[in-house]
Amino acid sequence: MRTGLAMHLELVGEGLRYGVPSTRGIAKTVAVKPLLFPPTAVEEDRKMIVTIATLEESGAQLEEGIRHVREEVVPSIRGATGVHPAYWLVDRGAGKRLSVTIWDDPDAAAAMPGVMASIKRLREEAGRTKPQRSPNRSERFEVFAKI
Question: Domain with 55 in it: what CATH number?
Fold first, then answer.
């Protein structure tokens, strides 16, 4: 098996190392770590799926959405069969949250009813009877290439 070499840049703190200046006069320290990885190809018969949900919120809605993800969604989806890393992103200035979930294949998304049942149970245990708001937009994509 061949391996490739990739460089991973990680912002670690304030300071100046490796000549990384900032536009505000404060530099970020950068640690460079080599990562070995095997080259991968997306198999035609096993397409990964990415789902992206967009939520547009403001103020208390935005903070409640973040709390919901941290306390209810993450514990419910952690360990679900077929889920790869999932990411929850926020742009507080724009009042927007994104949920990005990566699944092994289209069949892996069948784990979602169990995840939703777990979220519902956690909400009930916490005395939250009002349902969490739905995304403004949900999209589903097939991965056709990756590095």
Answer: 3.30.70.100
